[in-house]
Amino acid sequence: MQIFRTIIWVLLLVGLLLFSVANWDPTVTVRIWQGIVVDTKIPAIVIVSFAIGFFPMWLYHRASKWRMQRKIVSLETATRTAATVPVTHHPYDEEPEGGVTVAEPEPASHPHFDENDDLTTEGDIRPADDNSNDRPPLS
Known about the structure:
By secondary structure, the protein is mainly alpha-helical. The protein contains 2 helices and 2 strands; from the N terminus they run H-E-E-H.
């Protein structure tokens, strides 16, 4: 990736050099304020204009890159710290002393569970042979 960046900068500088050589003769008069007038060459105006547009954006880019780099380092440090701290186990996750395990209760032993119950209540499911339409037909 560095080679592409170098090629782009070299091409930009060669283009600027060719532009400067081709436009060196004419002198341009630039009026800055009422009493201030500057006679300058066209390549100088192009270079100064490029610098005025480029450097603020370059500084902003470098500042945001620096800020993101600090955030990344902070997150990596936090991750590394979290990875080295051992996780404590809940006391119920471990086997009790003596190797005896506690069995979980069966669903049938639940006080509100009846094996003979069909687990449906009235109004939950409409019977298949019910022809009463409470709603208008969909169209």
